[in-house]
Design a protein that fits this description.
single chain; alpha/beta; 32% helix
């Protein structure tokens, strides 16, 4: 076939479906027309925008395929339509509020790419899809900053990484993700009505990136059928971007018409919840269960959406009880507090075309491609209700067509609607008289939001709830109060040095609203009186998100005296398991629970109560065997390889220099800092000639005879090997050596090279200080003060140590270097700035700045990873 048009690509990816007009405009520009092939051979500019499209009309396909078209296909076009791939960011970052949406979106994206690969329409390397959520193996996307990639994750995982506090990941890699997610990305925030403060944070990041400066720009698309654009008007992002919505060309499409005019009648369920006290909720659930049985239509699906997980669990139990006395449809409970073990099974079952009753929470109100004949919902904010309506008669399948089999582009007049068609929505009022009771009852929302929605629902009873009907209703919801991310916050978050108290800046307030902050937990069998095995790591299928606060919150579970000592977390600072102190619970953290404590049910999910029946657990046999050390401030996992290969310092340096050059060629935006990166690549591991490192890297191993006279940079991993000097960091020795030997005429260049060297493992940051448990050097005489020391480096250490070996690095003095730690002190020393002063100058420099410097760090770290993994025989490499 000739080079495809966008319509060809869309059809091939989606199994033959033609694109809607708005999908063509998103990918090919505002003048694109699905019936005009010439307009479907173009690309378009990539700018920030709002995407306001009703549910069920293919927003996900529109977004993913628009990026693929412009990033992959358009650069291959001939003639004037061709454009460089660099016009569109390398990374598509698809941010979603819930894990279920992540899994569904990733599955669709992988399916579309697989179809295009099979069609053989592009000869190059296809972007890979990486999933970023707790326990999922995202792959090594972060060591390939030059490659296009699709990153799909939850707002917790993605926004925390963009704020340099990545949830559920090694602290040392935080700066890499911070650099990559704030440069060269197209961010997509989908289902924004469920993201709360995360929407405002994304807008602030967009504005701050423009003000502080990036190496390669980022853009953001905010997508939702109910996006309140007022959320995007923030202090550093005051002007709203352009908006994409349905136009006349879309409304002339029969499929679009059928969906936006789908009949959905609205009625009040004669049941009001006036309090969230147990005395009131109990009878309410019993009455609701009876109403569900009464209104369910045989042969169809009924969905009940409640605002709280505990009420959904109670309703499921009540319906189960009824089902023991009379025949009921299959019951299903769906919420976000299940482990993937159970949730993956539920995700498939809810889409099966059989008769069923689904009890759900907000987890089902967006993105899930399921439709019901009957929908029962508690009162919620209007934007959430509109999304819930999208789970009812979603495709207009319960409406009658007058002229079946007509051409695919029929007008709206080809449909008729009457009372015998359509679907039914019943809503439950939540209303308390007292202000305090109203605030508690409304959670996780605000009473003001429910008040606005209540009036609109009464109006909807007269007009219906089809997308066309809803377009006539305007919410004007009060905006909830939220923590606004400011420039000072981003600057403070740039430093990832561990707090010696074990606490970190809480970024949860910028990611989710109020008490919606979560942790992740998993269970393993732990022998009584023992600590968890060092090699335990959580796997995706066993992790469950749990709220910190609330009636069944993790905070309450952890404070239960019977559970004390049975919950652990992995301390990166100390490199060991530590028992959780309930006053130190932090959002986004991952905690291991002794299975004997319970807290989970296979049918109900997280309960926070003693389990009534056992549930399946994973063991060490279910996880990959660890072949590198776990992350810790005093560990050097990157220097110990899983392979049986050794690398000398000269060999490794040559490989890293070569890899760095390859990445520079692939990343033209790095050109202004290319020489700094090349220099840092040559010097990055000079500190490995230190005697402490050489003892560590060879201890317990038989060094090959032909390497006996060389400095060793990499060796096979052996568990349990530690540095003689706790917290030793070879990269600090490398950076200090460069500061003493490198040219000093360009201070900014000198500082940048030193920073890149020192930070290439992510453990040296803005300040130099000794860590708890470090060994201090002895003074040469009793009347002298203890010499300076930090991170295992002592004042006066020699590189290389006394001996015959030499460091073959361009510019390294033949006589070696005596390390000077004077820069760890405050103020200038002999006219040379302190380490902190150098770091702050780089961070605040208009020419560099915190977003660019993190990106540059990542390039060197990526080159170092490539050099470490190189399979070429070491003796064939010539040192640079």
């Amino acid at each position: 076939m000739s080079f495809p048009t966008y319509r060809d690509v869309f059809r091939l990816a989606t199994g033959g479906n033609p694109p809607y007009a708005y999908q063509c405009r998103l990918a090919c520009g505002p003048n694109a027309n699905p019936d005009d092939e010439s307009t479907l051979r173009n690309g378009t500019d990539c700018g920030s925008q709002l995407i306001n499209i009703p549910t069920g009309l293919g927003k996900t396909a529109a977004i993913v395929l628009a990026w693929l078209w412009n990033r992959v296909f358009v650069p291959q076009l001939g003639g004037s339509s061709a454009r460089p791939a660099s016009d569109w960011p390398r990374r598509l970052v698809y941010c979603l509020p819930m894990r279920t949406l992540v899994e569904q979106t990733a599955g669709e994206a992988q399916k579309w790419i697989a179809a295009l690969v099979k069609a053989n329409v592009f000869p190059g390397e296809w972007p890979k899809v990486h999933i970023l959520m707790g326990g999922a193996d995202a792959g090594e996307w972060d060591i390939h900053p030059e490659k296009p990639a699709i990153l799909i994750g939850t707002q917790d995982m993605l926004l925390s990484r963009a704020l340099n506090r990545g949830y559920g990941m090694a602290r040392a890699r935080w700066p890499m993700h911070f650099g990559l997610l704030n440069n060269d990305c197209l961010w997509v925030l989908d289902e924004t009505q469920l993201m709360g403060v995360g929407v405002r944070t994304s807008a602030q990041l967009e504005g701050l990136r423009a003000k502080i400066g990036t190496a390669i720009g980022c853009m953001t698309w905010w997508a939702s059928a109910t996006l309140d654009a007022r959320l995007l008007a923030t202090p550093d992002f005051p002007l709203l971007p352009s908006a994409l919505g349905l136009e006349a060309a879309d409304l002339n499409d029969a499929e679009v018409t059928r969906r936006i005019h789908a009949v959905k009648r609205v009625s009040t369920l004669p049941l009001t919840l006036v309090s969230d006290s147990a005395k009131v909720v109990g009878p309410y659930v019993e009455q609701l269960a009876a109403a569900v049985v009464d209104r369910h239509q045989p042969g169809s699906t009924t969905i009940i959406i409640l605002n709280r997980v505990d009420r959904a669990q109670d309703l499921y139990s009540a319906l189960e009880k009824i089902g023991r006395k009379q025949i009921l449809s299959r019951l299903m409970l769906v919420h976000s507090r299940f482990r993937p073990m159970e949730r993956d099974l539920l995700s498939g079952q809810i889409k099966e075309p059989d008769e069923k009753i689904i009890i759900a929470t907000q987890a089902i109100e967006a993105g899930v491609d399921i439709s019901s004949r009957t929908l029962i919902t508690e009162l919620a904010p209007w934007s959430s209700l509109v999304q819930r309506f999208g789970r009812c008669n979603r495709k207009g399948e319960f409406s009658e067509r007058v002229v079946p089999g007509q051409h695919e582009r029929m007008g709206g007049s080809q449909f008729k609607f009457n009372d015998s068609d359509g679907a039914d929505i019943f809503w439950i009022n939540l209303e308390a008289e007292e202000e305090k009771a109203a605030a508690s009852l409304a959670l996780p929302y605000a009473p003001e939001q429910l008040s606005t929605a209540r009036a609109l629902m009464r109006h909807a009873e007269t007009v219906g709830a089809s997308p066309a009907d809803l377009a006539k209703l305007h919410a004007g919801e009060p905006l909830p109060e939220a923590h606004i991310l400011r420039r000072k916050d981003v600057v403070d978050l740039f430093d990832t040095t561990p707090d010696l108290s074990g606490l970190d800046i809480d970024v949860g307030r910028y990611i989710r609203d109020g008490d919606e902050r979560d942790v992740q937990v998993y269970w393993r069998e732990i022998a009584a009186g023992e600590s968890p095995a060092d090699g335990i790591v959580p796997l995706r299928q066993e992790l469950v998100r749990v709220p910190i606060y609330g009636t069944s919150g993790f905070d309450k579970f952890a404070r239960n005296d019977k559970n004390r000592g049975g919950i652990w977390y992995w301390s990166v600072l100390d490199g060991e398991w530590q028992s959780l102190r309930p006053d130190r619970i932090a959002p986004g953290q991952v905690y291991l629970i002794d299975s004997a404590l319970g807290g989970y049910s296979m049918t109900l999910g997280w309960t926070g109560e003693k389990s009534k029946e056992p549930f399946p657990l994973l063991t060490m046999d279910d996880q990959p065997k660890r072949d590198v050390a776990r992350d810790g401030q005093d560990r050097d996992d990157e220097s110990q390889t899983a392979r049986e290969a050794w690398q000398t310092l000269e060999t490794h340096t040559a490989l890293v220099v070569a890899a760095c050059e390859e990445k520079l060629q692939a990343l033209p935006a790095a050109a202004p800092w290319a020489e700094a990166l090349r220099t840092a690549a040559r010097w990055h591991d000079a500190g490995k000639a230190h005697e402490c490192f050489q003892t560590f890297i060879t201890k317990g191993r038989a060094v090959p005879e032909d390497l006996a006279t060389s400095f060793i940079a990499k060796s096979p991993w052996l568990p349990g090997i530690r540095f003689a000097r706790p917290h030793f960091r070879h990269e600090l020795a490398s950076a200090l050596a460069w500061l003493q030997a490198g040219p000093g005429d360009d201070r900014l260049f000198q500082s940048l090279v030193a920073w890149l060297i020192a930070t290439h493992h992510g453990k040296i940051r803005l300040s130099l200080r000794a860590m708890p448990g470090e060994t201090s050097p002895e003074p040469e005489t009793p009347d002298q003060e203890t010499p300076l020391y930090a991170r295992g480096i002592w004042q006066g250490d020699k590189l290389p140590p006394v001996g015959e070996k030499r460091i073959e690095i361009e510019g390294f003095p033949p006589e070696g270097i005596k390390i000077d730690l004077g820069c760890m002190q405050m103020g200038e020393q002999d006219g040379r700035p302190s380490w902190t002063a150098r770091a702050l100058t780089l961070r605040d420099s208009p020419q560099i700045g915190l977003f660019r410097i993190a990106w540059l760090e990542t390039i060197l770290r990526a080159a170092d990873a490539a050099g470490s993994a190189a399979a070429r025989p070491q003796h064939q490499i010539s040192p640079s």
